[in-house]
Amino acid sequence: MAEIRIENLRKQFEDFVAVRDSNFTVKDGEFLALLGPSGCGKTTTLRMIAGLELPSSGAILLDGEDVTFNRASARDIAFVFQLFALYPHMSVRGNVGFPLLSQGVPRKEIRSRVEETARLLQIDHILDHSVSRLAGGDRQRVALGRAIVRRPKCFLMDEPLGTLDAEFRDTMVRELRELHNRIHATTVYVTHDQMEAMAMADKIAVMNHGIIEQFGTPQEIYNCPASMYVADFIGSPPMNFLRFTSSLHRGKRSVRIDGVEVALPAVLEDMPEAELALGIRPEHIRLSDHAPLRGSVYGSEYLGTNQIVTVETGSGMLKARIPANRNFKIGENVGIELDHDKLSLFDCRSGRAIG
Ligand code: ATP
């Protein structure tokens, strides 16, 4: 297996910069998700790692070896596309074994490696079926089998579950993670779906307009977002922001929000008048009758065991994820309790976290 290191990687299409000086390392056996909205540069990054796109500048190292200018076929990397092309006239066995056949591997070895791969993916019972009659999930497993059978140094996957319906997607997310736990292949996985990234990845790189906004474990990214963009992109519903303007003094430890003193999660450095925001996740808000911070109920969404209640405050809308054991009327005046040790603080102008 292999470590992938990306150094100052940049891709420019004429005067448009699609990937802007990225730096990250995927350690041997790690699963990295490149996460971000459409057009942020995920696929371009992946294609450069695969050798399908030449970087404008920067370097790609596989196990310490500079492969930036190596051909794709010389990189020992398997690429799993969203729209995988299986050979429709062939059986599952023929499709999975094809990469070995074209490498000239002896037939006996092909047979045993195809069967071993099929057992791993639990498609051994359909090895002699034609792929043209398979359902989406099995087709995806065959495509994965074709990638795994070569035992490449690493896997690159570009939205491989994109065409599956929701039910199959959930199953495949679990299966991909289980597969990763078993074979520990270094993997880079492109997705715009935060739930997929959170469920599968060891590390996530959140991208925005060609820039990696944050690189970290799913827990780091969820609990300590480096920017308002990351805080807003991750979580459903996303993090709430309470905006306020304040002239701040060194060492200031609290602010007044809607007339109520709220302790800050970080001690402020000297700043001129600045627009700041306190960030809080919906599950870190409670609604209680007696809290001094007040708001009026704007709407609620019933989710079974819990509900999302939207509350309008003087500093913006807040969404609270709370137990569904109480009904709220639209317009009802409620008290808002914030879990103080879960607050984040952001500078609205740069969007970056403070502290
Ligand atoms: P998506 O999920 O929509 O593919 P993405 O995050 O993978 O999004 P990329 O496909 O990497 O984004 O594209 C990043 C930007 O670079 C987009 O604005 C895209 O239009 C542009 N781009 C990609 N390939 C080319 C190209 N060959 N020529 C010009 N612009 C390109």
From TrEMBL:
Pfam families: ABC_tran, TOBE_2. One of its GO terms (cellular component) is ATP-binding cassette (ABC) transporter complex, substrate-binding subunit-containing. Keywords: ATP-binding, Cell inner membrane, Cell membrane, Membrane, Nucleotide-binding, Translocase, Transport. Residues 4-234 form the ABC transporter domain. Signal peptide: none annotated. GO terms for molecular function: ABC-type transporter activity; ATP binding; ATP hydrolysis activity. It is found in: Cell inner membrane. It is a peripheral membrane protein. Its main location: membrane. The keyword Cell inner membrane applies. It comes from the Bacteria. InterPro entries: AAA+_ATPase, ABC_transporter-like_ATP-bd, ABC_transporter-like_CS, ABC_transpr_MalK/UgpC-like, Mo/tungstate-bd_C_term_dom, NA-bd_OB-fold, P-loop_NTPase, Transp-assoc_OB_typ2. Gene3D superfamilies: 2.40.50.100, Nucleic acid-binding proteins, P-loop containing nucleotide triphosphate hydrolases. SUPFAM superfamilies: MOP-like, P-loop containing nucleoside triphosphate hydrolases. Belongs to the ABC transporter superfamily. This is ABC transporter ATP-binding protein. It comes from Rhizobium tubonense. The lineage of its organism: Bacteria, Pseudomonadati, Pseudomonadota, Alphaproteobacteria, Hyphomicrobiales.
